[in-house]
Amino acid sequence: MLSSELALYIHLPFCARRCAYCDFHALPFSRSLAQPLWAAIIGHLRRLPAIYAEQTAGRPLSSIYIGGGTPSIWPAAKLGQLLEEAAQLFGVAGDAEISLEANPGSVSLGKLKSLAAAGFNRLSLGVQSFSPHSLALLGRSQRPGQAASSVNWARQAGFANLSLDVIYALPEQSLTQARQDVAEALRLQPEHLSLYQLTLSPATPLGRRYQPYQPPMPDEDTVLAMEEEALHLCGAAGLLQYEVSNFARPGFACRHNSSTWRGGDYLALGPGAHGHLQGVRWANHYDLPRYIQAWQPGGAGGQETLEQLNAAQRAAELFMLGLRTVKGVDLRTVEDIIKRPVLTQYEAAIASACQQGWVKLAGHYLRPTPLGLKMADRLALGFV
Description:
Blueprint: E1 6-12, E2 14-15, E3 27-28, H1 31-51, H2 53-56, E4 61-68, H3 76-90, E5 92-102, H4 109-118, E6 122-128, H5 132-138, H6 145-157, E7 162-168, H7 175-187, E8 192-197, H8 205-209, H9 220-236, E9 240-243, E10 246-248, H10 255-261, E11 265-269, E12 274-277, E13 280-283, H11 288-295, E14 305-308, H12 311-322, E15 329-330, H13 331-338, H14 342-345, H15 347-355, E16 359-362, E17 365-368, H16 370-374, H17 376-381
Parallel strand pairs: 1-4, 1-11, 2-3, 4-5, 5-6, 6-7, 7-8
Antiparallel strand pairs: 8-10, 9-10, 12-13, 13-14, 15-17, 16-17
Helix pairs in contact: 1-3, 1-11, 3-4, 4-6, 7-9
């Protein structure tokens, strides 16, 4: 069924420096642009209730996610201001998940205590690796010991929902080294772990330097072995896979991302951020000066793109995203959108995927098998 939840994503693009693998919208911190950007984001937030009055009325926020960039380089008081403004404008559900991305080295015990007091209840730490050599290759500024320190401080500050990010299939990385990174992350006892295969985007220094599965990158068999080993280690530690790249203890799957994967509604602030409301999808201006000009006090507002999705497009997105999750696609939601029996509309695609052992029907859900999760991208193509 279509969800009534409403989420808010805020993109703060500044980082201390840009990493060698990053193809997100991230920029080195600029003192001259920091205050204008903040004024634009606050201005944009305050105008959202009027812009989307009909779609958001009576819908308190079920989750808030502040990502980037490295949002934790901003003062805790400013980050807390975003939560206060959002609560005043929309209301926030009593059990809302409120997440902040942070890097080891960008937080202290005092700052984490202030963030927890402001209302953040979930922290996502971008650890990426515990190897000094790998951290240097990735262009990370943190020291290896800072990850453990940040986790200890987060616990002392009261964070009971902690997620760690780790990247595998790194240049010169062996299966043993990848296993050590995952094992070290699990020793810190997070509630959630995101494991991402390194993406070699041509827009990044690493992407221009290396080719997938070509030396010194791990070959395809080694990468598959890394994934199998990670799956085993996480399961043994009590973290269950619920999406291709995400593992969590029971009850700690990321609610914000899960809502997005189910086709839920989310507002978006910040340059380059994407939003979706009831079949309308948009992207904010990517260019930072243009975003600031649009949303500063007195600015004209507006998005970079605005698209009304038709029923077929919305259904295709549900399959594309849902088939990356262990729970799978709720076929009732698809039927709500296409207004036809889903087993008739997608009969051939479902039959083919079942025959290949990639999916199974379980009540109202079409669920990927373990093999289907490995083939998620190819599997989704059959439903486009």
